[in-house]
Write a structure and sequence with these properties.
homodimer, two-stranded antiparallel sheet, 7-stranded mixed beta sheet
Protein backbone atom coordinates (compact mmCIF):
# COMPACT_ATOMS: atom_id res chain seq x y z
CA UNK A 1 0.00 0.00 0.00
CA UNK A 2 1.31 3.46 -0.77
CA UNK A 3 1.28 5.70 2.30
CA UNK A 4 0.02 9.27 2.29
CA UNK A 5 2.21 11.15 4.75
CA UNK A 6 0.98 14.64 3.82
CA UNK A 7 -2.73 13.86 4.04
CA UNK A 8 -4.50 14.93 7.24
CA UNK A 9 -6.47 12.54 9.42
CA UNK A 10 -9.51 14.77 8.82
CA UNK A 11 -9.38 13.71 5.17
CA UNK A 12 -8.51 10.04 5.66
CA UNK A 13 -11.29 9.65 8.24
CA UNK A 14 -13.80 10.59 5.52
CA UNK A 15 -12.66 7.85 3.14
CA UNK A 16 -14.81 5.10 4.73
CA UNK A 17 -17.90 7.32 4.19
CA UNK A 18 -17.04 7.61 0.48
CA UNK A 19 -16.42 3.88 0.26
CA UNK A 20 -19.72 3.10 1.98
CA UNK A 21 -21.77 5.29 -0.36
CA UNK A 22 -19.93 4.05 -3.46
CA UNK A 23 -20.69 0.49 -2.36
CA UNK A 24 -24.39 1.41 -2.16
CA UNK A 25 -24.26 3.10 -5.59
CA UNK A 26 -22.52 0.13 -7.19
CA UNK A 27 -25.06 -2.24 -5.61
CA UNK A 28 -27.87 -0.12 -7.12
CA UNK A 29 -26.24 -0.29 -10.55
CA UNK A 30 -25.18 3.38 -10.77
CA UNK A 31 -22.26 3.69 -13.18
CA UNK A 32 -21.23 7.29 -12.71
CA UNK A 33 -21.98 10.20 -10.44
CA UNK A 34 -21.13 13.91 -10.47
CA UNK A 35 -19.39 15.40 -7.46
CA UNK A 36 -22.55 17.50 -6.91
CA UNK A 37 -24.84 14.45 -6.77
CA UNK A 38 -22.32 12.57 -4.65
CA UNK A 39 -22.14 15.56 -2.30
CA UNK A 40 -25.93 15.62 -1.85
CA UNK A 41 -25.92 11.91 -1.12
CA UNK A 42 -23.19 12.09 1.52
CA UNK A 43 -24.01 15.48 2.98
CA UNK A 44 -20.59 17.03 2.23
CA UNK A 45 -20.00 19.86 -0.29
CA UNK A 46 -18.90 19.03 -3.85
CA UNK A 47 -15.78 21.12 -3.33
CA UNK A 48 -14.93 19.14 -0.18
CA UNK A 49 -15.22 15.88 -2.09
CA UNK A 50 -13.03 17.11 -4.95
CA UNK A 51 -10.42 18.42 -2.49
CA UNK A 52 -10.41 15.19 -0.49
CA UNK A 53 -10.05 12.95 -3.53
CA UNK A 54 -7.37 15.20 -5.04
CA UNK A 55 -5.20 14.31 -2.03
CA UNK A 56 -5.00 10.79 -3.47
CA UNK A 57 -4.73 11.70 -7.13
CA UNK A 58 -8.19 12.90 -8.20
CA UNK A 59 -10.04 10.08 -10.02
CA UNK A 60 -12.72 12.39 -11.52
CA UNK A 61 -13.07 13.74 -15.03
CA UNK A 62 -14.30 17.26 -15.79
CA UNK A 63 -17.83 17.08 -17.21
CA UNK A 64 -18.14 13.33 -16.59
CA UNK A 65 -17.93 12.99 -12.82
CA UNK A 66 -16.74 9.82 -11.16
CA UNK A 67 -16.93 6.27 -12.43
CA UNK A 68 -18.49 4.51 -9.43
CA UNK A 69 -16.75 1.13 -9.81
CA UNK A 70 -13.33 2.66 -10.46
CA UNK A 71 -13.58 5.15 -7.62
CA UNK A 72 -14.82 2.48 -5.20
CA UNK A 73 -11.91 0.22 -6.17
CA UNK A 74 -9.40 3.05 -5.75
CA UNK A 75 -10.68 4.04 -2.32
CA UNK A 76 -10.85 0.38 -1.32
CA UNK A 77 -7.19 0.06 -2.35
CA UNK A 78 -6.23 3.12 -0.28
CA UNK A 79 -8.15 1.69 2.71
CA UNK A 80 -6.62 -1.78 2.08
CA UNK A 81 -10.01 -3.47 2.45
CA UNK A 82 -8.66 -6.67 0.85
CA UNK A 83 -6.04 -7.34 3.55
CA UNK A 84 -8.16 -9.57 5.78
CA UNK A 85 -5.88 -8.95 8.78
CA UNK A 86 -6.74 -11.36 11.61
CA UNK A 87 -8.66 -9.68 14.44
CA UNK A 88 -9.82 -10.82 17.86
CA UNK A 89 -12.42 -9.53 20.32
CA UNK A 90 -11.64 -9.47 24.04
CA UNK A 91 -14.80 -9.53 26.12
CA UNK A 92 -17.90 -11.42 24.96
CA UNK A 93 -20.46 -9.46 26.96
CA UNK A 94 -23.26 -7.76 25.06
CA UNK A 95 -20.95 -5.29 23.34
CA UNK A 96 -18.37 -7.86 22.23
CA UNK A 97 -21.19 -10.17 21.15
CA UNK A 98 -22.81 -7.32 19.19
CA UNK A 99 -19.55 -6.56 17.39
CA UNK A 100 -18.93 -10.24 16.60
CA UNK A 101 -22.42 -10.76 15.21
CA UNK A 102 -23.08 -7.41 13.48
CA UNK A 103 -19.75 -6.06 12.22
CA UNK A 104 -18.69 -6.85 8.69
CA UNK A 105 -15.04 -7.40 9.49
CA UNK A 106 -14.31 -8.59 5.94
CA UNK A 107 -15.74 -5.41 4.40
CA UNK A 108 -13.44 -3.35 6.64
CA UNK A 109 -10.21 -5.21 5.81
CA UNK A 110 -10.15 -7.70 8.69
CA UNK A 111 -11.32 -11.21 9.54
CA UNK A 112 -12.53 -12.20 12.96
CA UNK A 113 -10.50 -15.20 14.15
CA UNK A 114 -11.28 -15.35 17.87
CA UNK A 115 -13.34 -14.03 20.76
CA UNK A 116 -12.38 -14.37 24.42
CA UNK A 117 -13.94 -14.00 27.84
CA UNK A 118 -13.32 -15.04 31.43
CA UNK A 119 -16.93 -15.93 32.24
CA UNK A 120 -17.66 -19.69 32.42
CA UNK A 121 -21.25 -19.04 31.19
CA UNK A 122 -19.95 -17.46 27.98
CA UNK A 123 -16.96 -19.71 27.23
CA UNK A 124 -17.97 -22.35 24.68
CA UNK A 125 -20.88 -20.36 23.20
CA UNK A 126 -20.81 -19.74 19.45
CA UNK A 127 -20.99 -16.34 17.80
CA UNK A 128 -20.38 -15.47 14.15
CA UNK A 129 -18.72 -18.84 13.53
CA UNK A 130 -16.30 -18.42 16.46
CA UNK A 131 -16.40 -20.32 19.73
CA UNK A 132 -15.94 -18.00 22.71
CA UNK A 133 -12.63 -19.08 24.26
CA UNK A 134 -11.25 -18.87 27.76
CA UNK A 135 -9.09 -15.74 28.08
CA UNK A 136 -6.49 -18.01 29.73
CA UNK A 137 -5.80 -19.40 26.22
CA UNK A 138 -5.02 -15.95 24.81
CA UNK A 139 -1.26 -16.36 24.75
CA UNK A 140 -1.14 -19.72 22.97
CA UNK A 141 -3.86 -18.56 20.55
CA UNK A 142 -1.96 -15.39 19.63
CA UNK A 143 1.29 -17.28 19.11
CA UNK A 144 -0.50 -19.59 16.68
CA UNK A 145 -2.92 -17.23 14.88
CA UNK A 146 -0.97 -13.96 15.08
CA UNK A 147 -3.90 -11.55 15.29
CA UNK A 148 -3.04 -7.98 14.23
CA UNK A 149 -5.69 -6.11 16.20
CA UNK A 150 -7.97 -6.63 19.19
CA UNK A 151 -11.33 -5.03 19.89
CA UNK A 152 -11.25 -4.21 23.62
CA UNK A 153 -14.71 -4.79 25.11
CA UNK A 154 -13.74 -5.46 28.72
CA UNK A 155 -14.26 -3.44 31.90
CA UNK A 156 -11.79 -0.52 32.09
CA UNK A 157 -9.99 -1.80 35.19
CA UNK A 158 -8.46 -4.76 33.35
CA UNK A 159 -7.49 -2.79 30.23
CA UNK A 160 -3.97 -1.54 31.14
CA UNK A 161 -2.63 -5.03 31.90
CA UNK A 162 -4.55 -6.56 29.00
CA UNK A 163 -3.25 -4.22 26.30
CA UNK A 164 0.32 -4.54 27.55
CA UNK A 165 0.03 -8.34 27.35
CA UNK A 166 -1.44 -8.12 23.85
CA UNK A 167 1.31 -5.73 22.71
CA UNK A 168 3.92 -8.21 24.00
CA UNK A 169 2.14 -10.95 22.05
CA UNK A 170 2.71 -8.98 18.86
CA UNK A 171 -0.60 -7.21 18.25
CA UNK A 172 -0.25 -3.94 16.36
CA UNK A 173 -3.52 -2.16 16.98
CA UNK A 174 -6.47 -1.78 19.31
CA UNK A 175 -10.09 -0.93 18.66
CA UNK A 176 -10.84 0.42 22.09
CA UNK A 177 -14.41 0.52 23.44
CA UNK A 178 -13.38 0.94 27.07
CA UNK A 179 -13.29 4.23 28.99
CA UNK A 180 -9.58 3.63 29.60
CA UNK A 181 -7.46 6.02 27.53
CA UNK A 182 -4.84 3.66 26.11
CA UNK A 183 -3.47 5.88 23.35
CA UNK A 184 -0.89 7.31 25.79
CA UNK A 185 0.36 3.84 26.81
CA UNK A 186 2.38 3.24 23.67
CA UNK A 187 4.87 5.68 22.21
CA UNK A 188 3.67 5.68 18.63
CA UNK A 189 4.35 2.01 17.94
CA UNK A 190 0.72 0.96 18.26
CA UNK A 191 -2.35 2.07 16.34
CA UNK A 192 -5.30 2.89 18.59
CA UNK A 193 -8.82 3.75 17.48
CA UNK A 194 -11.08 4.62 20.39
CA UNK A 195 -14.86 4.62 20.21
CA UNK A 196 -16.03 7.04 22.89
CA UNK A 197 -19.76 6.37 23.06
CA UNK A 198 -20.28 8.75 25.98
CA UNK A 199 -18.64 11.58 23.97
CA UNK A 200 -21.00 10.80 21.11
CA UNK A 201 -24.08 10.90 23.37
CA UNK A 202 -22.90 14.14 25.00
CA UNK A 203 -22.41 15.66 21.57
CA UNK A 204 -25.98 14.72 20.69
CA UNK A 205 -27.06 16.37 23.96
CA UNK A 206 -25.13 19.55 23.15
CA UNK A 207 -26.71 19.82 19.68
CA UNK A 208 -30.15 18.97 21.04
CA UNK A 209 -29.93 21.66 23.72
CA UNK A 210 -28.64 24.23 21.22
CA UNK A 211 -31.59 23.42 18.95
CA UNK A 212 -34.13 23.63 21.79
CA UNK A 213 -32.64 26.97 22.85
CA UNK A 214 -33.03 28.37 19.34
CA UNK A 215 -36.63 27.29 18.67
CA UNK B 1 -28.49 27.18 28.08
CA UNK B 2 -26.65 29.86 26.14
CA UNK B 3 -26.03 28.79 22.55
CA UNK B 4 -22.72 29.23 20.77
CA UNK B 5 -23.56 29.96 17.16
CA UNK B 6 -20.03 30.95 16.09
CA UNK B 7 -18.28 27.92 17.55
CA UNK B 8 -17.41 25.12 15.13
CA UNK B 9 -18.49 21.52 15.63
CA UNK B 10 -14.80 20.57 15.67
CA UNK B 11 -14.49 22.50 18.92
CA UNK B 12 -17.78 21.48 20.53
CA UNK B 13 -17.08 17.81 19.78
CA UNK B 14 -13.96 18.05 21.97
CA UNK B 15 -15.87 19.31 25.03
CA UNK B 16 -16.93 15.81 26.21
CA UNK B 17 -13.22 14.80 26.24
CA UNK B 18 -12.39 17.78 28.46
CA UNK B 19 -15.35 16.98 30.70
CA UNK B 20 -14.34 13.33 30.97
CA UNK B 21 -10.74 14.12 31.97
CA UNK B 22 -11.82 16.85 34.41
CA UNK B 23 -14.18 14.33 36.02
CA UNK B 24 -11.21 11.96 36.48
CA UNK B 25 -9.06 14.77 37.89
CA UNK B 26 -11.74 15.88 40.34
CA UNK B 27 -12.28 12.29 41.43
CA UNK B 28 -8.54 12.01 42.12
CA UNK B 29 -8.60 15.18 44.22
CA UNK B 30 -6.66 17.40 41.78
CA UNK B 31 -7.55 21.05 42.44
CA UNK B 32 -5.84 22.80 39.56
CA UNK B 33 -4.02 21.94 36.37
CA UNK B 34 -1.96 23.91 33.87
CA UNK B 35 -2.95 23.83 30.21
CA UNK B 36 0.37 22.06 29.53
CA UNK B 37 -0.33 19.25 32.02
CA UNK B 38 -3.93 19.03 30.83
CA UNK B 39 -2.70 18.80 27.24
CA UNK B 40 -0.37 15.91 28.07
CA UNK B 41 -3.20 14.09 29.79
CA UNK B 42 -5.65 14.45 26.90
CA UNK B 43 -3.20 14.24 24.01
CA UNK B 44 -4.06 17.68 22.56
CA UNK B 45 -1.67 20.65 22.47
CA UNK B 46 -1.84 23.29 25.22
CA UNK B 47 -2.54 25.93 22.59
CA UNK B 48 -5.46 23.87 21.23
CA UNK B 49 -6.97 23.64 24.70
CA UNK B 50 -6.59 27.39 25.35
CA UNK B 51 -8.12 28.19 21.94
CA UNK B 52 -11.02 25.79 22.46
CA UNK B 53 -11.86 27.09 25.92
CA UNK B 54 -11.53 30.72 24.80
CA UNK B 55 -14.49 30.07 22.46
CA UNK B 56 -16.64 29.80 25.60
CA UNK B 57 -15.02 32.57 27.63
CA UNK B 58 -11.64 31.25 28.75
CA UNK B 59 -11.85 30.01 32.38
CA UNK B 60 -8.06 29.89 32.90
CA UNK B 61 -5.78 32.28 34.75
CA UNK B 62 -2.29 33.19 33.54
CA UNK B 63 0.27 31.50 35.79
CA UNK B 64 -2.36 29.54 37.72
CA UNK B 65 -3.90 27.27 35.13
CA UNK B 66 -7.41 25.92 35.48
CA UNK B 67 -9.38 25.26 38.62
CA UNK B 68 -10.56 21.69 38.00
CA UNK B 69 -13.92 21.89 39.80
CA UNK B 70 -14.84 25.25 38.26
CA UNK B 71 -13.83 24.25 34.74
CA UNK B 72 -15.65 20.93 35.01
CA UNK B 73 -18.80 22.73 36.19
CA UNK B 74 -18.54 25.28 33.36
CA UNK B 75 -18.10 22.63 30.67
CA UNK B 76 -20.88 20.57 32.23
CA UNK B 77 -23.11 23.63 32.03
CA UNK B 78 -22.23 24.16 28.35
CA UNK B 79 -22.95 20.48 27.66
CA UNK B 80 -26.17 20.66 29.77
CA UNK B 81 -25.29 17.44 31.58
CA UNK B 82 -27.91 18.18 34.27
CA UNK B 83 -30.89 18.12 31.90
CA UNK B 84 -31.81 14.45 32.32
CA UNK B 85 -33.76 14.46 29.04
CA UNK B 86 -35.79 11.24 28.73
CA UNK B 87 -34.27 8.76 26.24
CA UNK B 88 -35.40 5.44 24.82
CA UNK B 89 -33.60 2.59 23.06
CA UNK B 90 -35.22 0.90 20.08
CA UNK B 91 -33.89 -2.62 19.59
CA UNK B 92 -32.88 -4.78 22.56
CA UNK B 93 -30.50 -7.08 20.73
CA UNK B 94 -26.92 -7.27 21.95
CA UNK B 95 -26.11 -3.69 20.96
CA UNK B 96 -29.24 -2.15 22.53
CA UNK B 97 -28.72 -4.31 25.60
CA UNK B 98 -25.06 -3.20 25.82
CA UNK B 99 -26.05 0.47 25.62
CA UNK B 100 -28.78 0.04 28.24
CA UNK B 101 -26.49 -1.75 30.67
CA UNK B 102 -23.16 0.06 30.09
CA UNK B 103 -23.94 3.66 29.13
CA UNK B 104 -24.07 6.28 31.87
CA UNK B 105 -27.05 8.16 30.46
CA UNK B 106 -27.24 10.41 33.52
CA UNK B 107 -23.60 11.50 33.17
CA UNK B 108 -24.33 12.51 29.55
CA UNK B 109 -27.45 14.60 30.28
CA UNK B 110 -30.13 11.96 29.68
CA UNK B 111 -32.10 9.35 31.58
CA UNK B 112 -33.11 6.04 30.07
CA UNK B 113 -36.88 5.64 30.40
CA UNK B 114 -37.66 2.77 28.02
CA UNK B 115 -36.32 0.02 25.77
CA UNK B 116 -38.32 -1.65 23.01
CA UNK B 117 -38.13 -4.71 20.79
CA UNK B 118 -40.39 -6.85 18.62
CA UNK B 119 -38.96 -10.20 19.71
CA UNK B 120 -41.19 -12.19 22.10
CA UNK B 121 -38.06 -13.73 23.73
CA UNK B 122 -36.77 -10.28 24.69
CA UNK B 123 -40.02 -8.54 25.67
CA UNK B 124 -40.43 -8.66 29.45
CA UNK B 125 -36.71 -9.07 30.24
CA UNK B 126 -35.15 -6.52 32.57
CA UNK B 127 -32.13 -4.39 31.73
CA UNK B 128 -30.76 -1.40 33.68
CA UNK B 129 -33.97 -1.11 35.65
CA UNK B 130 -36.16 -1.03 32.51
CA UNK B 131 -38.45 -3.80 31.33
CA UNK B 132 -38.05 -4.44 27.60
CA UNK B 133 -41.42 -3.45 26.09
CA UNK B 134 -43.25 -4.54 22.98
CA UNK B 135 -42.54 -2.07 20.16
CA UNK B 136 -46.30 -2.09 19.55
CA UNK B 137 -46.62 0.03 22.72
CA UNK B 138 -44.25 2.69 21.39
CA UNK B 139 -46.93 5.23 20.50
CA UNK B 140 -48.79 5.17 23.82
CA UNK B 141 -45.50 5.16 25.71
CA UNK B 142 -44.19 8.22 23.85
CA UNK B 143 -47.44 10.13 24.36
CA UNK B 144 -47.16 9.50 28.10
CA UNK B 145 -43.39 9.76 28.73
CA UNK B 146 -42.39 12.22 25.98
CA UNK B 147 -38.88 10.91 25.27
CA UNK B 148 -36.60 13.47 23.59
CA UNK B 149 -34.20 11.09 21.86
CA UNK B 150 -34.05 7.47 20.72
CA UNK B 151 -31.01 5.27 20.28
CA UNK B 152 -31.64 3.35 17.05
CA UNK B 153 -30.31 -0.21 17.41
CA UNK B 154 -32.53 -1.98 14.88
CA UNK B 155 -31.78 -3.55 11.50
CA UNK B 156 -31.37 -0.85 8.81
CA UNK B 157 -34.38 -1.96 6.77
CA UNK B 158 -36.87 -0.84 9.44
CA UNK B 159 -35.13 2.46 10.20
CA UNK B 160 -36.79 4.84 7.68
CA UNK B 161 -40.33 4.05 8.82
CA UNK B 162 -39.28 3.90 12.48
CA UNK B 163 -37.61 7.31 12.60
CA UNK B 164 -40.52 8.95 10.78
CA UNK B 165 -42.93 7.48 13.32
CA UNK B 166 -40.74 8.66 16.20
CA UNK B 167 -40.47 12.16 14.70
CA UNK B 168 -44.28 12.31 14.45
CA UNK B 169 -44.45 11.24 18.11
CA UNK B 170 -42.43 14.32 19.04
CA UNK B 171 -38.88 13.00 19.43
CA UNK B 172 -36.22 15.62 18.72
CA UNK B 173 -33.08 13.58 18.20
CA UNK B 174 -31.63 10.22 17.20
CA UNK B 175 -28.52 8.39 18.29
CA UNK B 176 -28.16 6.26 15.22
CA UNK B 177 -26.25 2.97 15.28
CA UNK B 178 -27.77 1.63 12.07
CA UNK B 179 -26.10 1.73 8.65
CA UNK B 180 -29.09 3.73 7.40
CA UNK B 181 -28.12 7.36 6.77
CA UNK B 182 -31.01 9.20 8.42
CA UNK B 183 -29.45 12.66 8.65
CA UNK B 184 -30.87 13.51 5.20
CA UNK B 185 -34.42 12.50 6.17
CA UNK B 186 -35.14 15.62 8.18
CA UNK B 187 -34.55 19.15 6.95
CA UNK B 188 -32.68 20.49 9.95
CA UNK B 189 -35.49 20.04 12.48
CA UNK B 190 -33.99 16.92 14.02
CA UNK B 191 -30.66 16.33 15.71
CA UNK B 192 -28.89 13.19 14.51
CA UNK B 193 -25.69 11.72 15.89
CA UNK B 194 -24.54 8.67 13.97
CA UNK B 195 -22.07 6.11 15.27
CA UNK B 196 -20.45 4.54 12.22
CA UNK B 197 -18.61 1.57 13.68
CA UNK B 198 -17.52 0.30 10.26
CA UNK B 199 -15.96 3.71 9.48
CA UNK B 200 -14.10 3.52 12.77
CA UNK B 201 -12.78 0.02 12.03
CA UNK B 202 -11.76 1.03 8.49
CA UNK B 203 -9.94 4.03 9.91
CA UNK B 204 -8.05 1.71 12.24
CA UNK B 205 -7.23 -0.43 9.19
CA UNK B 206 -5.97 2.58 7.24
CA UNK B 207 -3.68 3.68 10.09
CA UNK B 208 -2.50 0.12 10.69
CA UNK B 209 -1.60 -0.39 7.04
CA UNK B 210 0.16 3.00 6.87
CA UNK B 211 2.20 2.02 9.93
CA UNK B 212 3.06 -1.43 8.53
CA UNK B 213 4.13 0.20 5.26
CA UNK B 214 6.47 2.60 7.07
CA UNK B 215 8.22 0.10 9.36
Amino acid sequence: MPSYPGVSQHVTRRLPRYYHHLTQLERNGTERISSREFAEMIGFTASQIRQDLNCFGGFGQQGYGYNVTTLRAEIGRILCVDKAHPAIIIGAGHLGFALASNMKFGYCGFRLVGIFDVSPELIGQEVAGCTIRDAAQLKSFCLEHKPMIAAICTPSRVVPELVNTLAELGLKGFWNFSQCDISNFFSGDMVVETVQLSDSLMNLGFNLNSKLENT
